[in-house]
């Protein structure tokens, strides 16, 4: 309790300190575009992974074995591709698109949409899916506090929500980014230390493999999955191609995550991106490996099977370590939860403030008014997410749904906006709507396919539908933008043939 109290006070203190540096709405929304490479990288990846990294992924591996790690493979690949191909151009183009501080504002300017429909639809998608995403983070926070301190889920949920709101409210983007960088470091160390200690306690990787094989051979098979029920692991059957594709498809979501893309927009310069990419990708590979090992080590080391697999990191920390050290590692779980929820709160607040209030209600609003509205909307989104979180739910399920929503709605449109000069406003609109609706309706659509019902993760059909819609409408409906866009390194994206010129 002492460790958690000190940690929570430290995060709130960051918000108080950065409050003095948050003088304008641009500071509040995007930190004045002055993030250095290490802060941008660590805060991007920490906000990306959320409590899912410390609870959901270890829990999935604990229940199903190494077959669940296909998710990690997809995420590592998606992280690299996002930093390599999206980050440099997005940093440059958003600044030249009227110094846009939101994806909605960038897309409106990029496609010269004077109807403002792109801004309305994209901002609405952000607010809806992020409210669900924040709720998932609050559920994870409530689960953590209740599991450790046994204070009751509702009280635990309230504490987690209040702390996140306070420092986001005070410091805005800069406070969120700095705290996320600190929290990203904590997550990295926790997922490095706990697996090392666990392997040492067990006697090496050979002993781990023997123990897992003894419980169920499927636990060690990338092409199969175990079934966990009533405290036992049994053969869950082959994963199959569809299941593997669904797990790998998590990597597709990166191209459309507003809270990750915001770090690309806020980094000091496109020249800082190669260093940030190396830091970010390295962080992801180490933490995903560590989280997967925690799930496997929980099977081998915990005396009693867990009622809730998503508590395996907590159980292993408490079993292996003394309370002081364990509390430091468990604080990293809270760091993982808060580092995502705060970013999502801020992006939702910015969308409501910039893309609704400023764009349609008060175009001449002063910085003072925008800051006030931004802070009010932080509280509003948090209250709605808190209400949703009271019903509970599995962290992985909530995150998977919101992740798919953003990946399908924005991923194809963002990539095409950066690389296809003939893309029109109609294509952008069609892509966003098709992607979002497919994700929302896929659970009802898939059973209607009868013998062709796939059970595939909704990200896959969502991305396919969005890409096809964007390509078809972008090519045949509406005109391409007239403006020439200059990208990193002096290349220019022009309308018509010869898309990219050095």
From TrEMBL:
Q: Where in the cell is it found?
A: Cell membrane
Spell out the Pfam families in the cross-references.
Answer: SSF
User: Principal place where this protein is found?
Assistant: membrane
How does the protein's chain sit in the membrane according to the entry? Answer: Multi-pass membrane protein
**Keyword Glycoprotein assigned:** no
This enzyme catalyses:
L-proline(in) + Na(+)(in) = L-proline(out) + Na(+)(out)
UniProt keywords (A-Z) are: Amino-acid transport, Cell membrane, Ion transport, Membrane, Sodium, Sodium transport, Symport, Transmembrane, Transmembrane helix, Transport
Identify the PROSITE patterns for this entry: NA_SOLUT_SYMP_2, NA_SOLUT_SYMP_3
Family annotation (InterPro entries): Na/Glc_symporter_sf, Na/Pro_symporter, Na/solute_symporter, Na/solute_symporter_CS, Sodium:Solute_Symporter
Membrane-crossing ranges are: 59-81, 120-143, 155-176, 188-208, 237-255, 275-301, 321-337, 368-388, 400-420, 425-442, 454-473
Q: What job does the chain carry out?
A: Catalyzes the sodium-dependent uptake of extracellular L-proline.
**Family per record:** Belongs to the sodium:solute symporter (SSF) (TC 2.A.21) family.
Please report the name of this protein according to its UniProt entry: Sodium/proline symporter
Organism, scientific name: Streptomyces chengmaiensis
The gene name on file is putP
């Amino acid at each position: 309790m002492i460790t958690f109290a000190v940690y929570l006070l430290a995060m709130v203190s960051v918000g108080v300190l950065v409050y003095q540096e948050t003088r304008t709405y641009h500071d509040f929304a995007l930190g004045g575009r002055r993030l250095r490479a290490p802060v941008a990288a660590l805060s991007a990846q920490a906000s990306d992974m959320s409590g899912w990294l410390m609870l959901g992924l270890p829990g999935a591996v604990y229940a199903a074995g190494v077959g669940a790690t296909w998710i990690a493979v997809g995420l590592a690949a998606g992280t690299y591709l996002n930093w390599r191909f999206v980050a440099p151009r997005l940093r440059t183009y958003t600044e030249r698109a009227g110094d846009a501080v939101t994806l909605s504002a960038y897309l409106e300017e990029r496609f010269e949409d004077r109807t403002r429909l792109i801004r309305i639809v994209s901002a609405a998608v952000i607010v809806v899916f992020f409210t669900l995403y924040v709720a998932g983070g609050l559920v994870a926070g409530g689960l953590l506090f209740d599991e450790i301190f046994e204070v009751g889920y509702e009280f635990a949920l309230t504490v987690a929500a209040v702390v996140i709101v306070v420092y986001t409210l005070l410091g805005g983007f800069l406070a969120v980014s700095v705290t996320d960088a600190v929290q990203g470091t904590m997550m990295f160390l926790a997922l490095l230390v706990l697996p090392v200690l666990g392997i040492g306690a067990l006697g090496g990787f050979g002993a781990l493999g023997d123990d897992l094989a003894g419980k169920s051979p499927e636990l060690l098979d990338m092409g199969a999955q175990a079934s966990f029920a009533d405290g036992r692991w049994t053969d869950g059957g082959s994963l199959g191609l569809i299941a593997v594709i669904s797990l790998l498809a998590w990597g597709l979501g990166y191209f459309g995550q507003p809270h990750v893309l915001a770090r690309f927009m806020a980094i000091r310069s496109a020249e800082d991106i190669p260093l940030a990419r190396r830091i970010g990708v390295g962080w992801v590979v180490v933490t995903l490996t560590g989280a997967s090992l925690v799930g496997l080590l929980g099977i081998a080391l915990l005396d009693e099977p867990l009622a809730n697999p998503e508590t395996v990191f907590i159980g292993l920390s408490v079993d292996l370590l003394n309370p002081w050290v364990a509390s430091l590692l468990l604080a990293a779980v809270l760091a993982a939860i808060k580092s995502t929820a705060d970013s999502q709160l801020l992006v939702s607040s910015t969308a409501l403030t910039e893309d609704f209030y400023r764009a349609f209600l008060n175009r001449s609003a002063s910085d003072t008014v925008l800051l006030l509205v931004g802070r009010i909307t932080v509280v509003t989104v948090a209250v709605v997410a808190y209400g949703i979180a009271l019903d509970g739910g599995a962290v992985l399920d909530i995150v998977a749904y919101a992740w798919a929503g953003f990946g399908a709605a924005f991923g194809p449109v963002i990539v095409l906006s950066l690389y296809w000069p003939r893309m029109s406003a109609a294509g952008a609109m069609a892509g966003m709507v098709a992607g979002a609706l497919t994700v929302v309706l896929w659970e009802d659509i898939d059973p209607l396919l009868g013998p062709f019902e796939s059970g595939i993760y909704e990200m896959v059909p969502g991305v396919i539908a969005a890409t096809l819609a964007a390509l078809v409408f972008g090519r045949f409906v509406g005109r391409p933008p007239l403006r020439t866009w200059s990208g990193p390194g002096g290349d220019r994206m022009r309308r018509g043939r010869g898309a990219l010129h050095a």
